[in-house]
Amino acid sequence: MAINVKAEYNISFRTRDGVRLDADIYRPDAEGEFPILLMRQPYGRAIASTVVYAHPSWYAAQGYIVVIQDVRGRGSSEGEFKLFVHEIADGEDTVNWAANLPYSNGKVGMYGFSYQGMTQLYAAVAKPAALKTICPAMIGYDLYTDWAYEGGAFCFQTNLAWAIQLATETARLRQDKAAYQALFAASRNLPLTNPEILQTLAPESFYHDWLANSQPDAAYWQELSPKRHLQTVDLPMFHIGGWFDTYLRGTLHLYKDMADRSSTPQHLLVGPWAHLPWGRKVGNADFGPKAASPVDRMQIRWFDQFLKDIDTGLLQEQPVCLFEMGSNIWRTFPNLPTSTQKSYYLSTTGLASIREDSGTLSTQRSTERSRSHSELSTTDVLVHDPWRPVPALGGHAAIPAGVFERSHLDLRSDILTYTSQPLAADLHLAGDVIVEIFCSADQPSYDLCAILSQVHPDGQVYNLTQGYVHCRAGTNSTPTKIQLQATCARIPQGNALRLSLSAACFPAYPMNSGTGAVINSEDLLNAQIITLTVSCGGEANSRLLLPVVAPY
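The structure assignment produced for this chain is given below.
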């Protein structure tokens, strides 16, 4: 039976350095002591991440004291907001304060996604005794590889949009009307060809540091990334991700690391969701009623187990729960699937950018097929023109994210397409998809985008997963490896697989000028046409590797 809830607003305490942090508290209107659920976030605490979670009053009605706090320098909390910089110390101080609130039983759990997920990791670093468990969702474990960059390429659209969002809120808090209006307008029409506008409007933004530190070994990332600090942390964690979330890499990297070394339970849930919302429809795809978010009820069960010491049966269940798209069901596993990699080799008549029937995917190498297909070529040529870059459409890195019909894009002459025969039986995938491309370029630098789609019998094409890599030109004696976003899906019998290759995916990632990323209007002015030669035969036979698993 649900409990009546009492709300208290603007409850404050001071950190070790004297900064006032403000929170709203929702607690059961009943006698007794209750565990604490803490969320720390930078968007104004009244929002309380209700874009994906139930309102905190619902959590309180399940028998918890829920604390929603503005982090330093956001909402009504004092201090200067610096991205992630203060969250270890402030997180520890907040956990210790919350554990001693009236009616608290002294046990604290944390929940939240995105920045609110990151604050959980940073609080855990300090190992406050009262923090018993966390539920990080959609986070960056290694800030460089999991959040700011992918395959060495800057995650341009999501980073720019987020930087403008935070800068707009900063201008609002400062009551800087001119900056606020300019930033708000920019948020509705991202300055994709003039992103340096952010330098003028928000010179203190983290965005400039992220661009300046373009290599993973920079001291900036080593100091700020949770991965460096979490190596000795051992807490029960419920990890939550989405197949089309731009930060799924971080969720999976953290889960794998913790599952390998932790002595405490680590559970993983991945739904067919983008960063938000978490529902049955993602882009053009409807994954059915089972795709509606189970997270709120699952988190209560998790917190009952670790904060109320109730045997929920949770620890007897398989820890990995993945939504299989296509079947539209949840599948459970004892661990992340160790899949059998099945190779599909690229072959072509040399016209894969012009004709849909030219590029094919086959389980046979092109050298074997060429004996009976004399028209096959060993190469395809791909030309990238910065005047009309291949546009981003869905996936995990674009706004909006998700599944979209893309047959019109695959007809472009700056996209190489390779399509299999219709499948003779259902194909079940779970895990990492990898593409190995042997290629050469006529410029010192270039990018590669790989998109795996399914082709329906009626000719419609829907993206399943994709990856991106920033390359330096060299010989094609070793393949360029493109790590696509992990996935879990059933490709039905009669559908075909398609691999689409391009040299741009704009504005999800910046264009390549031929010497490096185009990150301002001056770089755009100097952008060159880039010609790539992709090998589809001989010893350098490019291929797609799929993580095949047994049916449910």
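Interim note for the steering committee: Residues 156-173 form the longest helix (18 residues). The chain has three domains: 5-139+226-329, 153-213, 340-548.
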